[in-house]
Amino acid sequence: MGIYEGMGAAAGSGAGAETAGGAGPGGPRPSLWQEEPVGRRRLPDPVRESAVRAVLIVAVTLTGATITFFLTLTGSWLAFPMALVSIAGTVVATWSVLDVLITRQMWNQRYGVVSEPSSTARSSRRQARRARREARSAGRIPRNGRPPAAWPSAAADSRYGATGRG
Prior knowledge:
Number of helices: 3
Distance between the termini: 95 Å
Oligomer: single chain
Shape: elongated
Radius of gyration: 35 Å
Strand content: under 5%
Number of strands: 2
Largest sheet: 2 strands, antiparallel
C-alpha cells in the first residue's frame, strides 16, 4: 500500500483503513507534524530586520563583485564602473553588518534583563521589596511610602549617642 497505508477514506476503505479514533490495525500512528524544541530564542524584530537587510546587501555586493571580476577578465568597458559600484557596495555592506551588531547591542542594553530566578535584577528587586516590607512592619515607613510629617531629631536618635551631635 505504501506511505498512505491506512489513511481512511483517502486511501480507500480496505482492511487497513484507520478508524475515526485514529487507531488502525497496528495501533495509533505518530503524527506527521512533530514539534521540536528550539535550541535558541528568536531574535528580536529590530535585530532580525537589520540582519535580513544586511544579508541582502551582502548578497548583492558579492554578486556585483563577481560580475566585476568577470567583466575585468573579458576587458569590457563596464569593468571600471562596476568596480566603483563594488567598492561602494562593500562600504554599504560593512555598514549594514555593523548596524546588526549595534542594533543587537542596543536591544540587549534596553531589554536584556532576563527574567529568570538567577537574574541579578530580579534578586535586587526582591531584596528591595523585602527591605520595604521590613521597614513598614517596623513602623519606619508608612504604607503610602511618604515620610511622616516630622522626623525625630538627631538628639533622639540612638545612632548618634547621648551627645546629640548631628
